[in-house]
Amino acid sequence: MHRPFFTALVATALSAALLAAQPPALAQEAAQKPAAKPVSRFIQDPYPSTYKPIASPPVLIQGATVLTGTGTRLDGADVLMQGGKIVAVGADLDAPADALRVDGRGRWVTPGIIDVHSHLGVYPSPGARAHQDGNESTSPTTPNVWAEHSIWPQDPGFATALAGGVTALQILPGSANLIGGRGVTLKNVAGASYQAMKFPGAPWGLKMACGENPKRVYGERGGPSTRMGNIAGYRAAFIDASEYLKKHRPKQVTVQKKRWWQSGSGSTDSDKDSGGKRDLKMDTLAGAINGEIMVHIHCYRADEMTTMIDLSKEFGFKISAFHHGVEAYKIADKLAAEKICGALWADWWGFKLEAYDGIQENIALVDRVQNGCAIVHSDSEEGIQRLNQEAAKVIAHAQRIGMEIPPERAVRWLTANPAKSLGILDKTGTLEPGKMADVVLWNGNPFSVYAKADQVYIDGARVYDRNDKSRQPVSDFMLGQGMLGQGMEGGVQ
After folding, report:
1. Between 17 and 343, where is the model more confident?
2. Residue 230: what are its φ and ψ, rounded to 5°?
């Protein structure tokens, strides 16, 4: 656990007490909420989130330039956070008497940055072999593994990502396998366990990979050794999953009431066990076919992306995003028509043959198409610290070909669009009333090379402050490390 957050434990307990003592009207409203929606057995969570927002007084940021993440820019505006939520955004807002008032003049405010492709915690720093827990490269298809079970919460990279404005991130398995397993979305907060960081209510992601990586890893180990072998491997896995789903489709349970193996007393006909042994691999693939698990595919070439779209239609799953996609610009219109996001780099290319045909305008061209969904992602423990500058590169390259992209549009690549691809846009990603108060206060235009995150709020709590050392979290692992710890405290490296 990061030392500056010890007080958060006390604060959380106080928060729980306050909730218990809520006014009768609020208690009555909570009691009238509809019962939990039934979910299929495939997404039962035996390792649920234990994340609790840190209690915080109301916060009013005043007089800032605000990019809401919805395509709107407001100059000289205020942002009011209370009870962990965005309450209002606008000019001359009223705030409770006990609100903390933050001078935003000359500064900019954005939603918290969300990285859809990270390996923090599963490939942590230091990068020793003992920490290489991202690829279960024992079989080409391992949908049974979950990245969350490899996460090391003490990874110092979480703190440096926070200093770069990252408030949420998806941790994925690596790309050695055709089907690498489930990814998990985290809130970027300190915790002794990954469950304490797990984003409440976020769907799982399914990591798949096409192209060179599976061929290289398994080519001399029984295959696949070709791209046609890759496709045959996906098809075989999803054929099995389709048969499994036919047997278990009626099986549903209500959250917190039944477990997947339970039936009998209190069940309806649709709850009764349809027979057969539970299969963790098939659970994940069936959840993807059902649309309950978001599918994220590592894929570089345009032709392979179109093949994967055909594969998704053959088996009925929906692709949420293609990751890396250096040739996404070639099929930008198709991606938009299929409602598939492109989670892309600003300028990485050429490090292998399938990454050869990249252009620096890739993200801008994917974004330009009507209903295009462009995302700036990292896939890097260093790049995640400067995703705002990665987006700035895209703006600059687009400008050179006559495309003017204003900040209020570009910020969506870092906030709303990644939230959409992760299935959490209803909770975060924009500064709209009722959403989580995940907010970054920048020292200026976030798309400037001089931009730094001055303050970062998660659920309305100030979890990072560049000018307050007590709010610059440091991993337990870094404590007592002597010179190793120098410069890692609270700063983007």
Report:
1. 343
2. -55, -50
How far, in Å, CA of 238 to CA of 308, rounded? 13
Q: Which comes out higher in pLDDT, residue 239 or 262?
A: 239
448 lies in some domain? no
Query: In 3-state terms, what secondary structure has residue 295?
Result: strand
DSSP letter string over 426-492? Answer: TTSSS--TTSB--EEEESS-TTSTT--EEEEEETTEEEEETT-GGGS---GGGTT-GGGGTTTTTS-
Residue 147 within any structural domain of the chain:
yes
pTM, to two decimals: 0.88
Q: How many CA atoms lie within 13 A of 289 on its CB side?
A: 26
Q: How many CB atoms lie within 10 A of CB 202?
A: 21
Band of residue 31 on the pLDDT scale cut at 50, 70, 90: very low
Out of 7-21, 30-44, 202-216, 241-255, which region has the weakest mean confidence (pLDDT)?
Answer: 7-21
| Cβ pair 126, 446 in contact under 8 A | no
CB of 159 closer than 8 Å to CB of 488: yes
Tens-digit pLDDT profile for residues 433-470:
999 999 999 999 999 999 999 999 999 999 999 999 99
Q: Cβ–Cβ contacts within 10 Å for residue 263, how many?
A: 16
The reply to whether omega before 224 is within 30° of 0 (cis) is: yes
Q: Shortest CA distance to 405 belongs to which of 378, 377, 444, 366? A: 366
The string of pLDDT tens digits covering residues 325-357 is 999 999 999 999 999 999 999 999 999 999 999
The CATH number linked to 123 is 3.20.20.140
Domain count, the chain: 1
Angle at 389 between CA 486 and CA 339, to 5 degrees: 125
Band (396; pLDDT cuts 50, 70, 90): very high
Q: Which domain holds residue 355?
A: 3-54+112-431
Grade residue 40 by pLDDT with cuts at 50, 70 and 90: confident
- Residue ranges of alpha helices (H) inside 110-250 are 157-163, 212-218, 227-248
316 Rama sector, left if φ>0, alpha if ψ -120 to 50, beta otherwise: left
Give me the amino acid identity at 325: G
Category of 83 on φ-ψ map: left (φ > 0), alpha (ψ -120 to 50) or beta = left
Mean pLDDT score, 92-110: 98
Is 438 inside any structural domain? no
Distinct helix (H) and strand (E) counts, the chain: 12, 18
Model pLDDT, residue 30: 40
DSSP 265: T
Where does 249-378 have alpha helices with state H?
Answer: 280-289, 302-315, 332-337, 362-368
Is 336 a domain residue?
A: yes
